[in-house]
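Expect sequence, tokenised fold; for instance:
***
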Amino acid sequence: MREARPGVVIHQLTDLPQVVSGPPSEEALRANARVRGEGTRNLTEAAISAGARRFIAQSIAWVYAPGPEPHSEDDPLDRQAAGPAAISIAGVLTLERLTLDSPPLEGVVLRYGQLYGPGTWNTSQGGRVPVHVDAAAHAALLAIGAPHVGVFNIAEEKSLVSSERARRLLGWSSDFRLAA
């Protein structure tokens, strides 16, 4: 990374299986949480060492604490979760803290909904927090040059979360699709 000297680093690494038939196993969740923790730590340190100015990280939008919906980015995450959810939330909390609190990096967290579309686990929209893979990728592109930092929900309307902040500050739309 030092040789490349990127101005922006985008972290969308996961350690999830290519195919799932049901909820991911506890082993898969632990591996993914490890990438969110150790992987993010390694990437932020490398980004700082290379002189990057901005760090953009993929998070998830379905880990908010119970409360009024739709959730905004200011709502607390579910730190009281138990079982498999607690594993994911621990990884998310570490990823988001490192992304937002690693000066001099400008941190941007994109809390994606559950991806659907080509190349994802879901070919059609489903779940309580959907987002098309093209619209999610477009959010990352917009975050590169946006003057704003912080946390942004990236999900379709009428879901568990509000993406109003991303629409207003990033110019993002859940309707974005790549041309065929």
